[in-house]
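Priority: medium. Attachment 1 of 2:
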């Protein structure tokens, strides 16, 4: 698997968290954001997370929302897990409002989540994505994610998932 530096992937651990494309603001999610997050989730996935699943991540640095003109237009949930005795980043969920897709919101959110995770000391990040979600897989490939293996019937509706991993080294 190819190894990347954060700079190779278009993000830097020292980048300003308030910098985003075209007026988009990315910030840590707050309780007031949960209804908007749940609505985006429900419009994005056939088996959406319930409201209470998002509540568990409130206060976590990797639960971020993208806001434009005061409205939440996307979110990401990422955290650090232990894997074989070392910290690994895990992007658990990423969604953009259907009306805002294709405008860099997902890229901005993923970049910020990767900054949070690398700031937490990880050198690899994993995620699961629907095998047939070509748009998401294209975004993840831009960040150096590569397929590791497939999980049959991973999702509640029986859809398969592909586990993707991005590894990078310090610096850059």
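Attachment 2 of 2:
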């Amino acid at each position: 698997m190819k190894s990347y530096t954060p700079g190779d992937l278009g993000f830097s651990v020292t980048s300003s968290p308030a910098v985003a494309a075209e007026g988009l603001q990315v910030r840590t999610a707050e309780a007031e954001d949960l209804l908007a997050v749940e609505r985006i989730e429900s419009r994005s996935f056939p088996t959406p997370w319930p409201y209470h699943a998002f509540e568990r991540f409130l206060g976590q640095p990797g639960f971020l929302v993208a806001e434009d003109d005061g409205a939440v237009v996307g979110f990401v949930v990422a955290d650090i897990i232990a894997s074989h005795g070392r910290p690994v980043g895990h992007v658990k969920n990423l969604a953009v409002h259907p009306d805002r897709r294709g405008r860099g919101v997902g890229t901005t959110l993923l970049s910020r989540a990767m900054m949070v995770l690398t700031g937490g000391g990880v050198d690899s990040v994993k995620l699961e994505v629907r095998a047939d979600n070509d748009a998401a897989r294209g975004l993840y490939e831009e960040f150096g994610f590569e397929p590791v293996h497939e999980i049959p019937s991973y999702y509640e509706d029986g859809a398969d998932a592909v586990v993707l991993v991005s590894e990078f080294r310090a610096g850059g």
